[in-house]
Amino acid sequence: MKKRLRKKMSKEWEWYAVKVLYECNISGNPSPETIDENYSNTHKTFEESIILIKAPSFDQAYGIAEIEAKKAEIDYLNPYNEMVEWKFVESIDCFNLFDEKLESGTELYSRYLRVPKDISNEKVISRYYPETVAEEEVDYNYILRNKDFNLRANLN
């Protein structure tokens, strides 16, 4: 009976690709002997990553993705002896996949954003992900994947 119930539950869960955003924070003073022509401290870097999540709904896919994204945060010293910290910022987008032979947590896509250091996370999101900012004109492609919109759809 347990096997049958577990098999039935797994058929109800679907694969989602969730886009998450990380921010790279660099702190400390660089070692003067390591500074070269590639060194710069005028920008900060963001990474958007699409991870694969198995969940029963869009809303739960967002929640699971945030847990997975936080587990992927890392810290290390760069070649200039500065501390580098990659931190989860926000889940940006979610869409349903239909292939059943995928594994949860697999990264599907990644992109780095290089922006001035003084730009806020909110400005990064509004500039690079304008579809997430409420405006008068509706982006129907975004609405189909939006977690608030899909929460309403799942209540019916």
Description:
The protein has 156 residues and is an alpha+beta fold. The chain is 31% helix and 36% strand. It is built from 5 helices and 5 strands; from the N terminus they run H-E-E-H-E-E-E-H-H-H. The protein has helices at residues 2-12, 58-71, 121-128, 140-145, 147-155; strands spanning 14-27, 43-55, 74-77, 83-97, 107-116. It has a 5-stranded antiparallel sheet with strand order 3-4-1-2-5. The chain is elongated and about 60 Å long. Mean pLDDT is 80; it is low at 4-10, 137-145 and 149-156.
Rg, alpha carbons: 19 Å
**Percent of residues in helices:** 25-40%
Give the overall silhouette.
Answer: elongated
User: How confident is the prediction overall: mean pLDDT?
Assistant: 80
* Element pattern in H and E: HEEHEEEHHH
Strand-residue proportion: 35-45%
Classification by helices and strands = alpha+beta
Q: Give the termini distance in whole angstroms.
A: 30 Å
Beta strands, count: 5
Number of helices: 5
Uncertain regions spanning at least 5 consecutive residues: 4-10, 137-145, 149-156
Q: Major sheet, described briefly?
A: 5 strands, antiparallel
